[in-house]
Specification:
Blueprint: H1 14-26, H2 31-45
Helix pairs in contact: 1-2
Length: 68
């Protein structure tokens, strides 16, 4: 299976949400990916090191081999 993500409800100011949506569209990302990117950038700016993100696998699953 893919990478497990923590779901978290987030309440934000509508103007802030609109700005995040515009930034996501400009970067061709989903809003969720944009929020994650912004959080990582903010932590990096504070000197908090994180491991590189483990991207989810995309596309078709590999074909199963017959006989072993």
């Amino acid at each position: 299976m893919g990478v497990q993500r923590k779901a978290y409800p987030l309440r934000v100011d509508p103007a802030l949400w609109g700005a995040v949506e515009r930034a996501a569209a400009a970067d061709l990302r989903s809003v969720n990916a944009q929020v994650e990117c912004l959080l990582r950038e903010a932590l990096k700016a504070r000197g908090i090191k994180l491991d590189a993100p483990n991207p989810a696998r995309r596309g078709r699953p590999p074909k199963e081999r017959e006989g072993g």
